[in-house]
Design brief:
10 helices; alpha/beta; two-stranded antiparallel ribbon; globular; seven-stranded mixed beta sheet; single chain
Length: 250
């Protein structure tokens, strides 16, 4: 499915703007990602962008995990997949506890003779936004991620104190000040991911943090990511220039 086609269907749905969806789509397609893990999907907007890239490539699969509350978020993942006809690429898992428990189950399934057989070549984490579950999730994902695979964290700058949906709740009021004001995913990225000896090619772009698990053979996927962001920057500059010209003319 072309990006223009998937954008028409899900471009208006929270919580991923089309510009971010395009980066995901282009990276998966250009770098040949085939086996994707997603932690946290909400409406499933990001899921659909990634599934569309797999559809355009002609193969691949996505395991996406969220808690049971995602079943009632309208529009649901199921309705978006039905509208896009991309169901065959996506396996949703709903957890009653945390996606870390589902990752435990996947590691058990992939374990042979005290060793885990990697299952994924890309992981997108946009879930709990908290140190404890996402710090653990990173180490569990590392076990399931193939050499040369990529991990992408969303919302590096998110905090409980700034969350419109949570900041005024009793839960957040009861939190220690430093806990609710610290961008916890940024700390996961800087203190765990960037210090892990198995990862390289770290990149921060706005609220996103990218990292690649070291490859056994040379990989060009870091160059592909560079080119995607360069093209996005050029396109943004061109749009800004055209707006200035339009305002001067009219």
């Amino acid at each position: 499915m072309r990006f223009e086609d998937i954008e028409k269907i899900v471009g208006h749905v929270p919580f991923m703007p089309a510009s971010d969806g395009k980066i995901l789509y282009e990276f998966i397609l250009a770098s040949g990602r085939k086996h994707i893990l997603e932690l946290g999907f909400a409406h499933g907007t990001s899921t659909c962008y990634m599934a569309a890239a797999l559809d355009e490539a002609g193969e691949g699969d996505i395991v996406t995990i969220d808690n049971f509350s995602a079943r009632s978020i309208e529009p649901t993942l199921f309705s978006l997949l039905d509208n896009t006809k991309l169901e065959r690429y996506v396996k949703p898992l709903f957890s009653g506890t945390s996606y870390t428990w589902e990752l435990k189950n996947l590691i058990e399934q992939q374990t042979r003779s005290n060793s885990t057989i990697p299952l994924f070549d890309f992981c997108f984490i946009d879930g709990a936004h908290a140190w404890e579950p996402d710090g653990l999730a990173f180490f569990l994902v590392e076990t399931l991620l193939a050499p040369g695979g990529w991990i992408l964290f969303d919302d590096l700058d998110w905090t409980y104190a700034q969350s419109e949906g949570l900041r005024d709740t009793e839960l957040v009021h009861a939190m220690p000040h430093d806990y609710k004001t610290t961008p916890q995913i940024e700390r996961v990225f800087s203190l765990l991911v960037m210090q892990h000896p198995s990862f390289e090619n770290f990149r921060r772009e706005g609220r996103w943090g990218w990292a690649q698990k070291k490859a056994i053979t040379p990989s060009r996927s870091a160059e592909i990511l560079d080119r995607i962001y360069l093209n996005q920057s050029i396109a943004h500059d061109v749009r800004q220039l055209l707006r200035k010209i339009f305002r001067r003319l009219f």
